[in-house]
């Protein structure tokens, strides 16, 4: 199986940084790194992760200071280690003495029929499968959600970031992928109800952007859609 990916930022009156995207169709790897602070921090995270993943693919015996977890697959362990190494590097180089930058991260890889992802912070993750209701896979509660009132939605403010501490609260999960599956990735603190009733053919960058913009027109957000296909690589 293969996948394709499309994304789009939406500028509102509030601020939300646009992610740095790394898409490798050969290794079937997608990294979405959202910098809160200098954009170089997101590029550094992507570089550190891709360097380790390339090494691990070439050498299955590649060692790391982070112990493998027996409950995770090889692909999941590799993503976990790559993310922890990136967190360690960003903390050591940028934030040991004072906070200068942080990065929200989503990284996913497709290996045979297993799609594995790691996540800290946004985007929100939803799975669209033909014939099924939209399923939230990674719902994120950030500080905007925590502190917004019924009458006022605050601008986006992250609560989980790489680089702020030597340890990391990291979510890791996987599912058995099928041709036709779509992953909707939405960086937004308050997803509108209309998204959850969307049909498979409505899960697109344009369709999701319209739904979110209609519900919260003043708030910046970002949308990405990863589509899994069989046979030849999707264009």
Description:
- The protein is an alpha+beta fold and 235 residues long.
- The protein has 4 helices and 10 strands; from the N terminus they run βββααββββαββαβ.
- It has a 5-stranded antiparallel sheet, with helices on one face. The chain has a 5-stranded antiparallel sheet with strand order 2-3-4-5-8, with helices on one face.
- A hairpin with a 2-residue loop joins β4 (102-111) and β5 (114-120).
- α1 runs antiparallel to α2 (74-95).
- The two termini are 13 Å apart.
- 40% of the residues are buried.
Alpha-carbon distance between the two ends: 13 Å
Which strand-content bin applies to the residues?
A: 25-35%
Sketch the topology as an H/E string, one letter per element: EEEHHEEEEHEEHE
Number of helices: 4
Give the structural class: alpha+beta
Count of β-strands? 10
What proportion of the residues is helical, as a percent range?
10-25%
Which segments are poorly predicted (pLDDT under 50) over 5 or more consecutive residues? none
